Amino acid sequence: MSATMLTELASERGIEPTQTLRGTGITPEILRDPTAEVTAGQELILVRNLLADLPDVPGLGLEAGTRYHAPAFGPLGFAMISSPTVGEALQVVTRWFDLSFSFSKLHRRDESDQITLVLDDTGVPDDVRCFNTERDLSAIVTMMRPLLPTMPIMLASLDIALPEPSYVDRYRDILAASGTKPNFGMPETAMRIDAALLPLALPQANRLIAEMCVQQCAALMHRRQARVGVSGQVRQHLLRRGHTTDQDEVARAMNLTVRTLRRRLAEEGTSYRELAAETTGMLAEELLSSGLPVEQIAERLGYADASSFTHAFKSWKGVTPGRFARERQRLRVPQREDSPY
């Protein structure tokens, strides 16, 4: 699971797992459970912890992505590598990309001589966008290399919607297997694949296994959606996109009209406004408990300034953020080693 790989990455650099997992609700037992699932919101907090604890490591997302071999993606990864052809593997990835660990969305554009895969990060919070893009690109190249082990060039071009970093050599080293040099400062992050590659057979092709894994992908997606319901899906969108995301944007992301979203939430006994306040309040409590200054928390949660955040927090909890943090610290007792906080 992704959370395990990120925690191990931090451990290799001297960060204790309990430090990396603070505020996520993830315990070491969960990391050791192969059937456990970590939500996007939990992983988002984990990534923020990782970036806060290792602020001086250039290309941390690139390094993380090299750990994401196909088996790490479960049924999605096995369905891809078992697909009969490159084209069918791309169909699997495009259809079930939401089962990956990325915070981005994947869009596909078919053109006459090439396929373009666009990583849409419009819903990814600014403070993790660079890490997310780097991890995605590195992971995709890591997964693709075994598919075409004899091909010197996998990508016709690679555009990246980030400015060229000082550690550009890290990009070139890690993404060298893609067969092309990255173009920075582009309008979108996009990978272009020559259409001539689509009919090529894959070395581990097994249609029966591929079909079985696709069925597992469908079942996993169904279980996730059934378990969280509409309100749970809205919470996940809010955790990923921030409390300032409006109802129209979330409805579009869920392929619903605003009217239908309101009705479905009402059927579950809640509303968009209640979920937005609940989600932001939960994140605020976790961040205050971690000891971050109010000013930094306000910025992370998208408030214009600390006073705006303080006013909102007091309306939810009846106390100021400072007092809440002091009370939480006063009541804190020594934690067991397996505590999620």
Automatic annotation (TrEMBL):
Q: Is the Cell wall biogenesis/degradation keyword given for this protein? A: no
Domain HTH araC/xylS-type residue range list: 228-327
CC per GO annotation: cytosol
Keywords annotated in UniProt: DNA-binding, Transcription, Transcription regulation
* Annotated Pfam families: Arabinose_bd, HTH_18
Q: Which SMART domains match?
A: HTH_ARAC (SM00342)
MF-aspect GO terms: DNA-binding transcription factor activity; transcription cis-regulatory region binding
PANTHER family given for it? HTH-TYPE TRANSCRIPTIONAL REGULATOR GADX (PTHR47894), HTH-TYPE TRANSCRIPTIONAL REGULATOR VQSM (PTHR47894:SF1)
Give the protein's recorded name: AraC-like DNA-binding protein
Organism of provenance: Hoyosella altamirensis
The organism that produces this protein has a lineage beginning with: Bacteria, Bacillati, Actinomycetota, Actinomycetes, Mycobacteriales
